[in-house]
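Protocol step 4 of 6: record predicted structures for both targets in the notebook before any analysis. Target 1:
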Amino acid sequence: MSLPDGPKASSWIQTVQFFLRPLETLDVWHQMYGDTFRVLGNELPATIFFSNPEAIQKIFTATHESFESTQNNNLLKLLLGENSILSCSSEQHQRQKRILLPPFHSERMHDYSQAICEITEKIIGEWIPGKIFVVNSVMKEISICIILDVVFGLQNDDRYNCLKELLVSLFDVLHHPFNSIFLTLIPVLQKKLEFWRLEESLMSQLQQIDKLVYSIIAERKVQRNYPGKDILSMLLEASHESGEPLTNIELRDSLITLLFAGYETTSSALSWALYWSYFSAEIHKNLLFELNSFPIGNDKIGIAQLPYLTAVCSETLRFYPISLMPFSRFVQKPIEIMGYQLEPDTIVNVSIYLAHQREQVYPQPKMFRPERFLERKFSPYEYLPFGGGSRRCIGAALAQLEIKLVLATILSRLQLGLVSPRPIKPIRRGLIMVPPTFEMVVTGVR
């Protein structure tokens, strides 16, 4: 069968449409061409979007001989390094994944859960009725503090404050609307533009961050008896199959990747979760009823397992997924998907957003309804907020734990209200979709 049909506009027009109005553009393309469509016209290699669970299963379960997920994005490689799990080839990816998995095992979650709740309580602890706050900013503050604690074992000292300031500044530059173009262009178009100006503006900040990160690594290596439960401490004890420890460059690339992947993604999901918890009076009432029946104490993991809280967080990630699609996969050898024969170099994209909007799977998909996650379980090819297959986000469990515990802590400590209780839609910020800026007010303290 020939390649699927798709939009007829020029590749540049399609790119602009997808950049400026990604959700609306995906909805229109899906309505016109169905679950599978080709974008960028006759550009080679072909770029195909899939959202059917059967197709997603075939893509996610294919061997690395069929697909390669190496990212041809020079900007990402500049930021994250050649050893990043997000940018390395399949074989290296598997080696890196083996090394990075232990810090995310379930037994580590108990240690992280305590830090998550303590940091959240510290940030909101002195708020009084009448305080108005920008939700997005507070969630970013919580998220960056958790990352610095969990990943680096850093608390409030000079290095902590310096690294925090540098990272926030880096993300502000990186996610400026113009700079976002270089992260969001479909790979075949990235080659047509130069990003030297952006590269120049980032280099000085990256050098400062690297200098600080390498100094933290060196200091921790000297502190052989450092009793850390943070991810850096565990990576320092890790080794390759040969028995060789990770090099400083490998450590740096892994740490920066975790920062990059877990900062604004999680803070944006937190902002959405808080928004939906107060936008609907019924959802808010149900959450409080469940939390009041299981007050936050030492059993933080028990809180994170509460069914309705989990359903609200799951629906948050379904309704407006932070990432519209996992990184592209590149066909390595001919493969048939949904009746289409895909040749080598074809670019395959799984649309998380469209997969989450399927009426057959999620009746009334445009309605925020947590109950759907209490009524049935969804397969990893129907519900995939963290991607899937061998490239599924390695920090998914930690991100979900953080979203649930931060939300539960805030709801248990404060009475809040939306300053402007109105529907809002996501906006693009670099590679991800985030809620627009909105405010809440403290109406009481519990």
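Target 2:
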Amino acid sequence: MKWTNDRSDNVDDRRGSGGGGALVGGGLGTIIIAAIVFFLGGDPSAILNNSSSTQTQTEQRTLTQEELSVRELVRMLTAENEETWAKVFSQNGIQFTPAKVVMFENTTRSGCGTAQSEMGPFYCPVDQTIYMDMSFFNELQQQFGAKVGQFTVAYVLAHEYGHHIQNLLGTLDKTNALRQSGRYPEAEMNKVSVATELQADFYAGVWAKQTETREKFLEPGDIQEAMGAAAAVGDDNIQKRAQGYVNQESFTHGSSAQREEWFMKGYNTGDIRQGDTFNALLK
């Protein structure tokens, strides 16, 4: 992936700040359960906020040159998301508001509760912020078998930015209303969750296409790298690794094949109007 000259000021790098630390009081079990809940599509903040945890302070440290380079990568990718989605929204007569991005280590505060590195990257609609602990990418490679490079970071950030787009368009409000109504069985709500996640993958593909058209930033292997990351976090792959078998009714993010399919549909069409995963999956 070729770097562009754009940088966003909406990135807050909290790594090395000393403001976060290990959680004390909730216990390792709470952290593990929250991580499992996150990867299977739930809201880990509900568990973390109900624990009697307190934060300990860690000493401040100076970021390494590699970490500073990662910050510049995230600032560049955030800027490209902002520019691409501002253009897409403008073309469709919709007002665009950029998301904020927080890079952190261990723990930090978020509008959705305590953010922990064990939770992986996530989007909080309350404060319209994407929270990313960069150690997630080591886990993605070591535990889920993904080939991790710079465009893996681009895909993950674009997926979380896709949730921000859903928030701006009112999609998340509608899905949350369905979930809170209690009118639908768990299996049906899981399908809604899958449709939500696959649409975020679709939006990531749209972003890649639109940004490539504008910046010519892709290099050979980048799209394959993104699809590999999408497949690695498919529900079937995660379930096989975690429990040795697949239960399709419990899917909340979509299978590896579905995640690849919808990312590629977004990339091939570059058209935000082609991403109605809800009608496609909830017939």
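Step 5 preliminary note on target 2. The first strand starts at residue 11 and ends at 13. Confidence is low (pLDDT under 50) at residues 19-48, 50-57.
Proceed to step 6 after PI sign-off.
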